[in-house]
Amino acid sequence: MRIGIIGGSFNPVHSGHLHAAKFTMEQAELDEILFLPAFLPPHKPESVFISPYHRYAMLSIATQSQDHFKILTSELETSRICYTIDTIKTLQAHFKRHKGKLESPDLFFIMGSDAFLEIQTWKNYKELITLLYFIILERKGVSFSVLYNLPPLITKRYADNCATASIKSQKNIILLKGKMLTISSSHIRTRYKQGNDITRYIPKSVYNYIKKYHLYE
Known about the structure:
By secondary structure, the protein is of the alpha/beta class.
């Protein structure tokens, strides 16, 4: 089984998140996508966040029609800052306990090139990049060519494609080309506060939820 993981604050979830999930699932032949909402991401200011409950609710609404999209709430339930490496280790231990003699699933952490460029600031990143697969999606402003300026211990792990990627061969970081939507949650929040339309950036159900609970006003 091949499981993709998309972490983030989802503040709010938007069409870019959903497009990335669908695109990656198809291109990398993943069986399901786990959305991993953070209680409070380590690299973002606390002041910009609304209640974890609302962020989870919007994510649930946005993904409910997709059978292969699931939400992992472990970080929300801790009510504290969590680090990716700790969450991944906990998840892998969970699969190992519950799969018995069956082989544990391959995990693919999906992220944008802009976030991956900062991977060296992540907790225990040298160990993290050995634990699972990474799928990197090219974001505007950070081309894949820039990622080759990262240290050799990272770049040596770049795989040619999804088919040849292998953790055992230390080729577990996949630079997956494809047209991504240039949308950010911060841009959506700013537009909304300014009274501008945001319906083209988020599902209608999420927009209705924002209006109902007077979020981001």
